[in-house]
């Protein structure tokens, strides 16, 4: 699913892990996938509605339900400003984290991944995952460039914010890249010390 516009100011109240009911071909061999669910408002002041999928898929569905959604929930679309504002907050520390570049992870476009990072930075709420290990959700995917979040712990996992996942994706984009400009590519996996990891790779979307 391709994202029509920058994801704007999606009002997120919670993030829940729904394990797939039946086996499906996994783009991550050795990992069990679950579908992220989001509580969202279709119009200002409306009752929350649960939608499933990546942030881009949820945004597309919101526009179908309310073509004026972007205007109703208008927010800055300046990615630089989003990054600057987030710099004022505490970032998740990936210093000295183990990471792998490319290899089994197919390369994808850095510009698209950075847009996915911006989407995640704008979300409120807490990512939650079922007990692992190797439980993963595709939280962002656009133009065949995906961000995954995986729980490596044997217990349920809750992160402080979606910005934590964005931090992992940005770490990969910083450490693992080829080329420059519109021809800059990235892919890899980084492991946080609290038993979760982020994967950036090519995927069908």
Automatic annotation (TrEMBL):
<protein>
    <recommendedName>
        <fullName>Ecp2 effector protein domain-containing protein</fullName>
    </recommendedName>
</protein>
<keyword id="KW-0732">Signal</keyword>
<feature type="signal peptide">
    <location>
        <begin position="1"/>
        <end position="21"/>
    </location>
</feature>
């Amino acid at each position: 699913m391709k994202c029509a516009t920058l994801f704007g100011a999606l009002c997120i109240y919670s993030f829940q892990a729904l394990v797939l009911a039946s086996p499906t071909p996994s783009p991550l061999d050795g990992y069990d996938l679950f579908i992220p669910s989001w509580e969202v408002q279709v119009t200002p002041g409306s009752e929350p509605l649960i939608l499933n999928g990546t942030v881009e898929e949820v945004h597309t569905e919101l526009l179908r339900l309310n073509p004026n959604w972007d205007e109703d929930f208008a927010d800055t679309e300046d990615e630089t400003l989003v990054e600057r504002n987030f710099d004022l907050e505490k970032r998740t520390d990936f210093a000295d984290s183990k990471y792998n570049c490319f290899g089994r992870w197919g390369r994808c476009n850095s510009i698209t991944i950075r847009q996915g990072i911006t989407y995640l930075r704008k979300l409120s709420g807490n990512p939650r995952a079922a007990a692992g290990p190797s439980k993963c959700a595709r939280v962002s995917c656009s133009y065949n460039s995906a961000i995954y979040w995986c729980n490596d712990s044997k217990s349920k996992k809750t992160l402080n914010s979606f910005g934590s996942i964005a931090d992992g994706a940005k770490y990969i984009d910083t450490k693992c890249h080829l080329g420059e400009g519109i021809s800059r590519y990235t892919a890899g996996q980084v492991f946080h010390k609290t038993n979760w990891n982020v994967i950036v790779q090519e995927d069908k979307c």
